[in-house]
Amino acid sequence: MKPEAADSFLIPSWLDPEDEVAPAPVKKAAAPAEKAAVPAKKPAKSAAAPVKKAAKNTAAPAAVPAKKAAKNAAAPAAVPAKNTVEDCLNVPENISVSVKNVWLSYIVAADRSDSVLRTVRRGFRSQEGRHVTALRGVSFDLYRGDALGLIGHNGAGKSTLLQAIAGLLRPSRGSVGVAHQPHILGVAAALDRKLSGRRNIELGCLAQGIAPARVERLSEAIIDFTGLGDFIDLPVRTYSSGMRQRLGFAIATVEIPDILLIDEALAVGDKEFKKASLDRLNEVRAGAGVVVLATHSMHEVRRTCNKALWLHEGSQVRFGDPEEVIEAYESRENIPERRL
Amino acid sequence: MNQPNPTLARASDDPSRAHLSEPGSAAPLGVYLRRLWSMRAYAISRARNGVKALNADNILGDLWLLLEPALLIGIYFLVFGVIADVRRNLDNFLAFLTVGQVVFTHSRRGIVQAASSLSRGAPLLQSFAFPRAVLPMAETLNALFTFLTSLVVMLAVVLILGESVRVGWLWVAPLAVGQLLMNFGIGLLLARMVTRFADVRTALDYLFRLTLYASGVLFPIQQFLLDSDRADLWLRLVVINPFYDLIYLYRWAILGIEPEYSGLMLVACMLWIVLSLVVGMVWFVAGERRYSGAKTIVKL
After folding, report:
1. Which residues sit opposite A233 in a β-bridge?
2. Quick check: A60 and A29 in contact, CB under 8 A?
3. Rounded to whole angstroms, how far apart are CA atoms A149 and A302?
4. What is the pLDDT, as a whole number, of residue A190?
5. What pairing do the DSSP bridges indicate for beta strands A307-312 and A315-320?
């Protein structure tokens, strides 16, 4: 594949990188302004309707003062433009995650091994593989206190986007900026199955750079949180998948991170654990942190997120109010044809 | 194509976004080393748990850490001491062999494990943003811990074979530290290569097989070389091999065998340690953003 290939991709008009960069500011009112305002009420319903137009009006480049953008957006909703909560919050200084026209490509090795003759013929270069462009020009900003729901089919690029935000994958084009190093929470993949839950907690804490002196103190709290009881001293391979995910979630959120990226549904575990994990998410947001959640559960997005992003085959279809994005996603309207 | 595209605005170009920085573990060397050092507790804990997990499924458990070197030495007794009865003009050939084998195994384990640490640690790379050099570091420490238990067995065997406790044994500590550092340096170098060419990992087994014979583990090379015409030249050449030097320095410390050119060996060893550590670290850190786990990233 020639390096110029990316430039030959036509960027469809609906994917103009500047479009929809600015988030819909109306939502901000529902987000907690202060740490004290913890209980993140379901932010969706009340303010949903007026946002529709607003998102389009705010298609201003990020350089335009956010105040102005907020004014434009707020006008149709008849919300006073000055001295509102979002007025103070939606300034560039409060941006926590900035994703700018991110493209990400890689080559996955084809599932076959070459014969010796073929290997010689291709001059011992790397095996040819399938070329995958996992992200195609994704752009958005997240402000302190935001919770973003990533939705889309399997293979839409949700996990890849999370890894790009965390800095684990480097964009081929575009840039990612973060105010703090994000914590990524995978499907409990990093657990060592041979070791006990207790040892995994210890290792997981240390891997996040927590001082050894604090780890012991924290691990008791984590064990409580997981509710694993006596299982905590058994090897993780004896755990059910739900138990593993609970353990993974507990480890990754032991210290309330500033930016938390979650690559799995929280719809695991019993009611109690669901509630406990939801509380943790809200704690992150209340501490002026940012949560990005990749999920297939629309219910979860409605319940936890104040923004949503629909990815389709790596392209950003829609970004904005969750109700609106989910509605579009579920009605499967404007699924764009991919043009190469 | 490796340079950042100048036409693309960086997040930091906008002064109001100056607080944003690129995510990930890449950093200038100084910052990187400080971060790496702050992760030492994790590396040690990971190494220790790795050693524990090694024999977790065996009924004898950790006892295997002692049994393994003991059994290995027992086999050498049988093959070289009883069946072949090779003494090679050495007073205590079996002690000589034991030290060589245990020391060589330390380096082989440490380097091979470190070399494959990134590919085997893919889930960790996809979940945590720690400096990637932590994984090779943990693997070399893991090899050190197994070496320390083997060391106990080795010293016990050496005593049984009629050697006596020497003051020279104290030299084992600095030698072990030096060996650890060299393993780490070479491991870093290979770890980056393995992420790009997995074939290197397979080739390593054969390279170490070759090194085993070239390092005088099983028989004293010097004896052969001294018989040749240009013994001086050969002996100096063989000293370039750091594993040969290390093994002989250990033998000198434990058994009191004074090799030819021992001063040269010490210098060569030190040079190797510094060189491998510096080159390995710089080369590894330069590729920090490529160690993403499973996927090969190709820039477009």
Report:
1. none
2. no
3. 9
4. 79
5. antiparallel
The interface pTM score, or ipTM, of the predicted complex is 0.81
Q: Which of B127, B129, B300 sits opposite A105 (nearest CB)?
A: B300
Distance CA B179, CA B175 (A): 6
> Which residue of A168, A178, A238 to mutate against B (max B Cβ within 10 Å)?
A168
In 10 A of CB A77, how many CB atoms? 16
* Cα separation, B73 vs B90, whole angstroms: 17
CB-based contact B300 A93, cutoff 8 Å: no
Chain B's closest residue to A182, CA to CA, is: B23
Q: Do A207 and B130 touch (CB under 8 A)?
A: yes
| Contact between A310 and A167 (Cβ < 8 Å) | no
Alpha-carbon span B42 to B58, nearest angstrom: 26
Q: pLDDT exceeding 70 applies to what percent of chain A?
A: 61
CB contact set of A180 (below 8 Å; sequence gap of 6+): A96, A257, A258, A259
Half-sphere exposure of A232 (CA within 13 A, CB side): 19
Q: What is the pLDDT of residues B96-130, one digit of tens each?
A: 888 999 999 999 999 999 999 998 888 888 788 88
| Consecutive H or E run containing A142 | strand A129-143
Contacts of residue A77, defined as CB under 8 A and 6 or more positions apart, other chains included, come to A26, A47, A50, A51, A54
- Write phi, then psi, for A171 (nearest 5 degrees): -60, 145
- Tokens 């054969």 belong to B206
Which single residue is written with the structure tokens 């729901």? A149
**Nearest CA distance, A189 vs chain B (angstrom):** 6
DSSP lists the bridge partners of residue A293 as: A149, A262
Q: How far apart are alpha carbons A202 and A196 in whole angstroms?
A: 10
b/e map of B72-86 (b: 16 or more CB within 10 Å)? bbeebbeebbeeeee
pLDDT on residue B90: 64
Task: Report residues of chain B scoring pLDDT below 50.
Answer: 1-12, 295-300
